[in-house]
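Lecture notes, unit on binding sites. The following record was shown on slide 14. It pairs a sequence with adenosine-5'-triphosphate.
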Amino acid sequence: MNNQPVVKVENLTKTFNKQEVIKPCNMSVNKNSIYGFLGPNGAGKTTIFKMLIGLLSPTTGRIEVLGMNGNKQREMLRNIGSMIETPVFYEHLPAETNLDIHLSYMGVKDGDISSALEEVGLNHVGNQPVSQFSFGMRQRLGIARAIVHKPKLLVLDEPINGLDPMGIRDMRNLFPSLVNRYDMTILLSSHILNEMEHVADTIGIITNGTIVEEVNLKLIQREHPEGLENYFFNALQKGANT
Ligand SMILES: Nc1ncnc2c1ncn2[C@@H]1O[C@H](COP(=O)(O)OP(=O)(O)OP(=O)(O)O)[C@@H](O)[C@H]1O
């Protein structure tokens, strides 16, 4: 891992209906990092993710992704893969056709749909319509769609939500291998602290619209060998007191 930031956020805010739900935030995600974004319900994780991937515009502040800001938005979007909230598909079309449509939309000609499906354990059902998929299979397909065009930055909002234990274990192996094989940088959110400890190397904590911590996981583990939970609750407490 080197120290070149792939995501750099400065003084980012977002106001909805006169309410500032994201207060001035700074964030830095290093190249080839797996950054685990943690925070209570409603803290602002999804809103920040949406701003990073261009689905929402910031109220104020600056976002730089892969060295680009607003100036090269198309190029930036082609290099981002994401799954935010519940993924939506063309229900009547097979999984592989959904990925094919995504590749066309992204302008990628040489995407490997069968490999992407295999990465998430869906290779045997690629020809089935998505309407026949279970919740966990849809999550897996959402991840396949996020990675099929081999983005440089992968942004996944609660990707293991709804996965079975095998799926969780598969993702634990998949994420670091995407970093190693395709030079990706991954930004993940999850409420499952234990799982974040398995995959992330950096932890960011947001509470009430403010990022209160951004720390290397190894440093946390040195101080909290018992696990992330105490560190997480302390950080929230610290955030509440400032
Ligand atoms: N479109 C919107 N209009 C108004 N308020 C919104 C909108 N989207 C999000 N919010 C508010 O912004 C705050 C942050 O929401 P967000 O979805 O980013 O939280 P989160 O950390 O992802 O939560 P969770 O863990 O529950 O998914 C919440 O108070 C939410 O009600």
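Take-home: The pocket of adenosine-5'-triphosphate is lined by residues 16-17, 21, 39, 41-47 (CB under 6 Å).
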